[in-house]
Amino acid sequence: MKKLVFILGLMVTSLSAYAQSGAKIEFKEETINYGEVYKGVDSGKRTFEFTNTGDMPLIIKDAKSSCGCTVPTKPTEPIAPGKTGVIEVQYNMNPGPISKTITVDTNAVNKENGMVALRIKGTVLVKEEKSILEKKSAGPLSK
Q: How far apart are CA 92 and CA 108, in angstroms?
């Protein structure tokens, strides 16, 4: 009988340790693909939406980009359990390929050290514009 009580106690203890209490963060998507976008047409703004699936308020401590060309904006207030929030990202639309990482520091217990790596990718193109001063090639000039 003592062995049975001991085993049941051990199982309850291990289950309670497995079911972590605290804030938990779940993103709709951790990578945003801009695709092919045009400088001057696309603003470069995107949002990463997340939900606090835990049982404690979620705090976004910091959000940093891998370079100065991408500026993340984090929520300033804690996110209550069951509520959603967003991290806005503004890319400066430099022509060429996009491959940037935004590191988010949180109090979430479901992420290692509370850290989440978000990514943006794609390609920024420049729209070709013809100058009105450019010569038109209409063939030989008639005299």
A: 30
